């Protein structure tokens, strides 16, 4: 999705300092992403160059907030016109710029998100097997430990659907960059109170910005997602919430979910290394994930 489908609502030309500037107000229907989502964009242009941009969408405003996105955008446009006529240099300040690019880290063919806060536990062992198998296949690997990072929780502001980037700038920037370039995303999670740990859930929620980026910018990259789940108790029912959360996460990012790799009875078994058949099964799952689609 791009601005090609935007509707021009209003256009004003301003001659200031010997230069002719254009202010435009655009409306876009983003209902394909969320029902009734409308985005408004105000742009300041000199010929074809965009000098400043402001965006807002209908999902930003809660029912108790009297503002409407179009009215907000129109007020911004009016203010910019006034500033442009009185002080054209001021409108080009950072206040009116787009969100800064995220702090990008290294990319890899395989990204492993180790959701357990215990790096030396069974989840850590499974992740090490994934790394070894991927490296044997000649693929690069990056491991992410959410609990060691500064990751703010998502606040549901929907501002990422204005710019494709999150309103927060923290360690999620590097995580999103890594995942955006990988071929296989592996999410390893223990079962905590029948679902994923809080640190992992924070990462999953913050990937809404990546969903916005992909939805607005368009991406046809083929990616796969593999869940590794570890439970203390016996029975697949213990993984019910974990599998639903992580599979929904993969689908939200337009990734193909592979069959989940689930290991139960760890309260009894204690150490996955005592179950030699697991490593061969996991190796097969990783190879499947690395196959070209």
Describe this structure as you would to a colleague.
The protein is an alpha/beta fold. It folds into two domains: 3-96, no CATH class; 110-290, Rossmann fold. The protein is built from nine helices and ten strands. It has helices spanning 69-86, 122-136, 160-163, 172-181, 198-206, 208-217, 240-252, 266-269, 276-290; strands at residues 7-16, 19-29, 38-46, 49-57, 110-114, 141-144, 184-190, 224-230, 256-257, 261-263. The strands form two sheets. Strands 5, 6, 7, 8, 9 and 10 form a six-stranded parallel beta sheet that branches. A hairpin with a 2-residue loop joins strand 3 and strand 4 (49-57). Helix 2 crosses helix 9 (276-290). The longest helix is centred in the first third of the chain and has 18 residues, at 69-86. The radius of gyration is 23 Å and the shape is elongated. The two termini are 24 Å apart. 34% of the residues are buried.
Can you name the CATH architecture of the largest domain? 3-Layer(aba) Sandwich
CATH topology of the largest domain: Rossmann fold
Distance between the termini: 24 Å
How many strands, which pairing sense, and closed or not: the largest β-sheet? Answer: 6 strands, parallel
What is this structure, in a nutshell?
This protein is of the alpha/beta class and 293 residues long.
Notable features of this structure?
293 residues, alpha/beta, Rossmann fold, 2 domains, six-stranded parallel β-sheet, four-stranded antiparallel β-sheet, 33% helix
